[in-house]
Task: structure prediction
Amino acid sequence: MDARQQRFLRLVEPHHAAALAFARCLCRSQADGDDLFQTALLRALEKIDHLREDGAFRAWFYRVIVSVHRNRARRPFWRRLVPLDDQGSTPAFDDALAGDQRARLALASLPVEQRETIVLFEIEEWTIEEIAALHDVSISAVKSRLVRARDRLRQLYTKRLGAASRAVLASGGTP
Result:
């Protein structure tokens, strides 16, 4: 193993689990998330020489994951696999889904930028400033994305789960 590969492994190891979880949250299924993560790992390894400071690896690697995810979302093939609308969903199907699957489907229904933002903030616990730097947008843009994503998720849960979800959301819980 050459020094470049050793550097990459040393840098990715502390972030591996969190970055994999992030990739899985961005996708409609765990398998798609694993595939996204593997592709991002390969892309990052190819580009590791462009990383000047090792301390910037985390943000740089997440930027690679986001880039790969967005490139896939633009492709017609991936759009068929990850629909961003509610067509084809039925109450019986929704009721059969476990909570984790409902959350994954709800996240998949968000526009790409909102999905990335809410996963980074709520699940990965990034700060608004870190997300703004990663996406190269203003802090107010990140805040707007969070508000819109939360509103859309709230609407989806209310629509799909009815009165039970309204009671849970009103109490501050998670459906």
